[in-house]
Write a structure and sequence with these properties.
This protein is mainly beta. It has one domain (3-104): Immunoglobulin-like (Sandwich). It is built from one helix and nine strands. The strands form two sheets. Strands 1, 2, 5, 8 and 9 form a five-stranded mixed beta sheet that branches. It has a four-stranded antiparallel beta sheet with strand order 4-3-6-7.
Length: 116
């Protein structure tokens, strides 16, 4: 299974490059970091070949560092982090999470689609 996180900078209306992202799973009460890194030039962070056995029905979260990202533009952010909590069930499909971030607002959308 693959997970793609797409982030748009709503202030500037473009993909958010250089955002710190962390994917954490709650596996039977133990917090496990599955992936971490930064978004690329298209505002995407991709986790590939995730272990399906540890994902089925378990609770996961994506943490996005909004504060540090907007600080690079000299903008003080009211939002420090965006956390998206979800459970993945259709593991034969790739998972897609899209987020719009701004210093004072945020939105997210989670979907899954057939693997290509």
């Amino acid at each position: 299974m693959n997970l793609t996180i797409s982030i748009v900078n709503s202030v500037h209306g473009r993909p958010a490059e250089g955002v710190d992202v962390c994917v954490v799973s709650d596996l039977d009460g133990v917090q496990v970091v599955q992936a971490q890194g930064r978004t690329g030039t298209h505002g995407e962070f991709r986790c590939t070949d995730l272990d399906i056995a540890s994902w089925d029905g378990q609770s996961h979260r994506i943490e996005i560092d909004v504060e540090s990202y907007f600080a690079t533009f000299g903008i003080t952010s009211w939002n420090r982090r965006l956390a998206v909590f979800f459970r993945a069930f259709d593991l034969e499909y790739d998972q897609q999470v899209s987020c719009q971030i701004a210093p004072f607002a945020q939105a997210s959308f989670v979907s899954c689609h057939e693997a290509m």
